[in-house]
Amino acid sequence: MEFAHCFNIKKTALAGLSLEELTDMLKPLPAFRAKQIFRWLMRGVRSFNDMTDISFAVREALEKRFSLYSSVISQRLSDNDGTVKIQLALEDGRTIESVLLSDGKERKTACISTQVGCAMGCVFCKTGRIGFKRNVSAGEIIEQFLHLRSIAAFSNVVIMGMGEPLLNLPALREALAFVSGGGIGVAGGAFSKRRITVSTGGITAGICDLADNGPDIRLAVSLTTADESLREKLMPVTKTNPLPLLKKALLYYQRKNLNRITLEAALLRNINTSRKHVDLLAEFAQGLDVAVNVIPWNPVAGLRFEGAPLQEPEKAEVEQFIAALQRKGVNVTARFKKGRGVAGACGQLG
Ligand code: SF4
C-alpha cells in the first residue's frame, strides 16, 4: 500500500490546491499519483471513487483523510434555456450562488461570485439587499469553477455573480492565477485570461490597481447611467467614486491595457432610458474604446425606486435606446435574457 499509515493531518479540502501544494499534502504518495489526483480535481470530479485510475486502497485512504471540496452544492436549478444555477453551502454555513449560462448552442459561460452578499446596495440588484457578509476566499472562488466544471465545460467566465469583485481583489487574483495557470481550461489546458471578464460597479482604486498589477483580464463596468445624480441614487458607490473619477480611471486603465472595456447598462423602465440618458452615455464613452452592453433589467420582486416598484423596460424602449446610441456611433450589444427561470440572471442572485 502506497501510503496508508502516513497522514498526520486533519481532513482538508483538496480542490484549489496547486499541484505543488497537493504533492506536498499527499506525501509520501509519489508525485505521479498526486498529478493524477490533481487532474481529476481539475475536471471537477464528484467523489474519490470516480478517480478510476487510482487504486481502491488509495481512494479509501484519501476519503478518510480528505474532502474534495470545502463547499457543497446545496441546490441546483436548471432553466429551460440551458442555464444552471447552483447554490453552494460554504464551510461556515453561508451560501453563494454560481451560474452556468448557455447561449443555447455550444457556448457556455460560468458566472462566479466573489462575496457573500454585497455592500454596494445597488437598488436594482437582489444581492445588494442582503448586505455584505464576508469575502469569498480564493479556494472558494476556485471551487465554484470546479463545481460548474463538473456540470459542463465552459469557454468563458464572468466575475459578475454576487459581490463587488474589486473589493476582494487579492483572493480573486490568487484564484485567477490558479485557473489560468493550467489544468482547468476546456481542453485540459490553462484557462485563457482573455476569456475572463471582471465586472465592477465602478471602484476606481480597484480599476487602477488592476491596470497596474493585473491580471490582464477583460474589464466591464456596470455603469447603468451616466447621469451622475441619478446614478448616485441607483448605485450609491457613485458618491465615493463619481463619474469623472471613474472616467479618469478607465482612461488610465486603457492606457495600460488594450482590451476594449464593456459598459453595462441595465435598463429600467422610464428611469434611465430617455434621450438624455443616451446623450450622457455617449458622452461618457467618448475617448474610451468601449462597447455598451444593454441589459433589459431582470425583474426581482420587491425592489423599488423612489416609492415605485422597478419594472423591466418595454421592448420598444430598449430598441429605441439601442438605435439612438448606435446613431451616435457607439458600439452596442444586447445581452440575452438568460437564466430568468431560475433567478440566475444578472441582478437576481441571492
Ligand atoms: S449590482 Fe453588483 S455591485 Fe451592485 S449590489 Fe449587486 S452585486 Fe453588488
Can you describe this structure?
The protein has 350 residues and is of the alpha/beta class. The protein folds into 2 domains: 12-67, DNA polymerase, domain 1 (Orthogonal Bundle), CATH 1.10.150.530; 72-342, TIM Barrel. Helix content is 34%, strand content 21%. It contains 12 helices and 16 strands. It has a 10-stranded mixed beta sheet with strand order 3-4-5-6-9-10-11-12-13-16, with helices on one face. Helix 7 (204-213) runs parallel beside helix 10. The protein is elongated and about 70 Å long. The structure holds iron/sulfur cluster. Residues 118, 120-122, 125, 127-128, 162-164, 201, 222, 347 line the site of iron/sulfur cluster.
